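Archive entry. Fields below.
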Amino acid sequence: MNNYKLTIQYDGGRYKGWQRLGNTENTIQGKIEKVLTEMAGEEIEIIGSGRTDAGAHALAQIANFKMRKRMTEEEVMKYLNRYLPQDISVVAVTLVQDRFHARYNAKDKTYSYKIWNKPFPNPFMRKYSMHVEDKLDQKKMKEAAKHFLGEHDFTSYSNAKAKKKSMVREIYSLDIKEKEGFIEIKIRGNGFLYNMVRKVVGTLIEVGLGEIEAAAIPSILESKERIQTGRMAEAEGLYLEKVGF
Amino acid sequence: MNNYKLTIQYDGGRYKGWQRLGNTENTIQGKIEKVLTEMAGEEIEIIGSGRTDAGAHALAQIANFKMRKRMTEEEVMKYLNRYLPQDISVVAVTLVQDRFHARYNAKDKTYSYKIWNKPFPNPFMRKYSMHVEDKLDQKKMKEAAKHFLGEHDFTSYSNAKAKKKSMVREIYSLDIKEKEGFIEIKIRGNGFLYNMVRKVVGTLIEVGLGEIEAAAIPSILESKERIQTGRMAEAEGLYLEKVGF
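PREDICTED_STRUCTURE:
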């Protein structure tokens, strides 16, 4: 079997997220598997490093798949980009060792979130960022960000229904930067729960708007109650930026 | 009468260009006039510095309109951004002297054109750039660009039907730069004929792909035959970037 590692970019706007659910074709995974199965001449399953939410984007999602047929990296890349829709792009293909597994081997992930913080909309980025009209207080947001660093039980910041698995995750860094009218939030951690990044960003926005105090975050985390968290930032502003192995 | 100058950004993707044609509502001008007329309580006509093609974008289109009602610049900006669709944004409003006229006073215009020159598509910029898969020879393109500088009769580079008006335009600069995978072409001149920028870019692409020689351009210009020019670059990559007064 040949094991191929893919680096994939996508505009998630019209998809129900990465993960194929049964026969749902309207997912990134479903779209790619369909093309791969035709290419390979056998049923192909692709393993992503993790799911992304419906509507969220990826700058470098990592995935792998195995097939009997031997093709060069260039051939696989060309085939995929030829038959995939224009909003999914394969930017790199590498033949890797048989044991490489995009999910099990992923050590950390970096997500970024783009906020357009101007009183007028940005016509070109309206599907690729969240528009917050009122001025955000970045100093307060940076203060708030510190409370998320380190290891925490993120139950309050999840929407997961399963209560069995551990909700503990470690956040390595959470940076907030201004760049040409955008506020970019970058978060790196060993893993993220379902909706977690969007809920964390939602809290940072609430702090930036003066709706809640940064100092309230530790008690929200400690409560382990999902009801304690407020708004969830829109999926359009969210990008899976990097997967570390 | 109060004369207001507007700086407007738009994603032209779903419009039939700037200029309203009769009752056509599906134009940028039509959309803005509809909102202005409601705001002013009288029929408003807006004057743009020039038309943009169907599907083409603007980073800073300049326009002006006059109304009896007196409103502050902030009020006009807020009203427009509240009622205009998200793909049209008013980024500045200034009360100007009565004699200011966005078309007659425009001295020069700068257009930019974005080409994504990679073998794989760019999912986020697919509607905001033209994808050319084969590697473009930028050195040859720069060589070709020189032939357009200065004053020329651009009949060959127009699609205009009217033969009466002068087809002579002066190009002040035509620069080609690479930037994060994009080739950006910037062209500044005292005016541009219908489809002219896209036809000039089309020729530059043909030169970059080795389909024609840069040295062929002077004779294409001299022929004054529209049939002599080859491909026209897609509207998606075109931006009205700046209007000089």
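CURATOR_NOTE: Helices of chain B lie at 28-40, 73-83, 138-146, 196-208, 217-223.
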